[in-house]
Structure of Pyridoxamine--pyruvate transaminase:
Amino acid sequence: MRYKDNADPVITLTSGPVNAYADVLRGLSRTVLYDYDPAFQLFYENVVAKAQKAMRLSTRPVLLQGEPVMGLEAAAASLISSEDVVLNLASGVYGKGFGYWAKRYSPNLLEIETPYNESIDPQAVADMLKKHPEITVVSVCHHDTPSGTINPIDEIGAIVSAHGAYFIVDAVSSFGGMKTHPEDCKADLYVTGPNKCLGAPPGLTMMGVSDRAWARMKANPSAPRASVLSILDWEDAWSHEKPFPFTPSVAEINGLDVALDLYLNEGPEAVWARHALTAKATRAGALAMGLSLWAASEKIASPTTTSIRTPQGVDEAALRQAVRERYGVVFSSGRGETLGKLTRVGHMGPTAQPIYAVAALTALGGALNAMGQKLAVGRGIDAALAVIDADA
Ligand SMILES: *Cc1c(COP(=O)(O)O)cnc(C)c1O
């Protein structure tokens, strides 16, 4: 065994958490200021302003001091009350999971569920809203990461908005890696974070909150207050003149500041383009060497994660173990329903570089062939290079 379990791998190509940019790591090492020091309060206000710019919001986003799963739970707890009728859209493990939270706050849950290699059809949402005018909240996951598939949230959002319902979007693993912004999809609560495509560590939530979502949460008597799940407590925390409800994660804010600078300075369009190109090269290479994609069509395959279907007779966990032992490369498995059925190659933040498509395909193809498959690895590499070089 060349690469042992107790040593860091050579290349981490997962779908989050991902490697942090070197500059972000340096940012994390800034000193830990006292949260009531005016320098920190002004710095925090500035980080929120950068997040607002990156998210292209006309209102101030909220930073919550916990991993985006906490932000999603906070969204459900704050916006959904027992009178609401929620339509949850589930095309994968995260989308389905949000429904369980929604159910905790309202017994009235409707769902559209697709097979986990497909995406939500906006027409089905329109039909459901027509049939159930009583629906008040719609929730969706943009990029259902354990499937590597994308839902058309801008189209769905337009339909939800016309109906008048509140729209909750999980864009944790798409924001920063492709063109998606809260107002593009008319989201009322749009949850994302630094630990996927922005290339920073897990530990914060960035949330877009519409004006009407603020009003709705304030009118909801069961919306959490004085709680880590509270969004309302953080409404004014962006201002250097207002106190924090509790101590923010100072080091994570330091890291986020650098991650946002990197994103804005490189230019969002350029960042999205290298995510898209890396994914396209990975897909082309996988297909050319004889593998299949998990996504039912390439149109819905994510630019930030490529899910490759596990070949018949291959143990997926053993495959990832072989990839790590032989080449020092780490991929993500599926989760829940997709566990064991696919392997995920992440293209997020610093790993959204086309050369990593070549590394991923080599490691995956090499390990599969060592396990007895007969893949044309060289053909896959040629196909990936053709995609990359056509773009040069
Ligand atoms: C990563 C991710 C989250 C955050 O959840 P963790 O599993 O705790 O990292 C939420 N939603 C989606 C779609 C994600 O990919």
Notes: Residues 16, 67-69, 94, 141, 143, 145, 170, 172-173, 196 surround pyridoxal-5'-phosphate (CB under 6 Å). DSSP finds twelve helices and 14 strands in the chain. The first strand starts at residue 11 and ends at 12. The radius of gyration is 21 Å.
